[in-house]
Amino acid sequence: MNPLNPLFARRRKHTSAAKLYGAIVAQTRLPLLYQEFGVPDTLEGRFVLLSLHLFAVLHRLKTEGTVAHDLDAGNLARELVDRFSEDMETVLRELGVSDLKIPKKVRGLAASSGAWLQAYEEAFAAGDGALATTIAAALPLEGEPAEAAGGRLAHYLKRVVRRLEAEAFAALKAGELIFPEASGISAQELGDI
What we know:
Blueprint: H1 5-28, H2 31-35, H3 43-68, H4 71-94, H5 102-126, H6 128-138, H7 143-166, H8 169-173, H9 187-191
Helix pairs in contact: 1-3, 1-4, 3-4, 3-5, 3-7, 4-5, 5-6, 6-7
């Protein structure tokens, strides 16, 4: 057995997490999500979409870990969360936050994102209405625009989760991730939320 195999395995997993995170970011940047779903194209709006897509992938990895008792799923989830934290640190630096304030800001963002990810998990388990309400509360909107965007995003998120449930875990471990189409949500489907 090659003694370097553990190092190569770690590097492969790290690359898989990087690929998954890249796919999440690419999906988050789709103009359609802002234009048709009513999400403001602001830092806060982007953060909500990023956290929703991250939630969907983490939810899938959590399910895999629970069902198959697969340690790789947990490791991949941790690496994905680490990528997210690194990305948030980069964004803060680009916004001009000083090096001395970065750790405190990153801790605050980590706590906030952790709270939202937990809220999405609880709302997802509680049903469509709870999910739409939770997403609406996360958005940098108020009133009817928040409710409308929350409903659309809740339906879209359910579609994403269903798509990821059908995805082979081997593909996720390899860093392969295909999101469903974001367009084509019918009024009938929105009425179900």
